[in-house]
């Protein structure tokens, strides 16, 4: 029996070397569009200068679509790759964890179908992060700095996504922890193995 990591590497190679990459990009672009729609009210209430810190998930899916497309056309960008990896891993896991932590609040304002869609689509984001390999350490450091600033703006200035609770401590701790864990995982994944 093959190890799970070996199977994943074969799946990654298959997706990126066949026309499945087009479907992957298309799904992520649809997710990006829906994400911006989802964040519409919050964006309207937030200064344009802070928008880059608000729409975390839509920017993540846009990042992975850009990273995969740039690789396919031979214009790979180490900063886009580092962003796509870290953003999809972090915000995919962050959303799934926050949906579980604040389960009662989220299920009181969302249908079961929407809750499950948000949960599993964000777990998918975390998995697709590993389509990115060969992460440049300098780019990772720069992108990591952005995510630390983003966490600061989210939990000091309150530009984090809506959380149905007055107690956002767990969401903040999860975000900061996942930034650090994501950096460590990306560093360990720097050679694509």
TrEMBL record:
InterPro entries recorded: DUF1405
Native species: Candidatus Nanohalococcus occultus
Keyword match Transmembrane helix: yes
PANTHER family assigned: DUF1405 DOMAIN-CONTAINING PROTEIN, HYPOTHETICAL MEMBRANE SPANNING PROTEIN
Protein name (database record): Uncharacterized membrane protein, DUF1405 family
Lineage: Archaea, Candidatus Nanohalarchaeota, Candidatus Nanohalarchaeota incertae sedis, Candidatus Nanohalococcus
Superkingdom as given in the UniProt entry: Archaea
Entry-linked Pfam families: DUF1405
Sorted UniProt keywords: Membrane, Transmembrane, Transmembrane helix
TM ranges: 20-37, 49-70, 82-103, 115-132, 139-162, 168-187
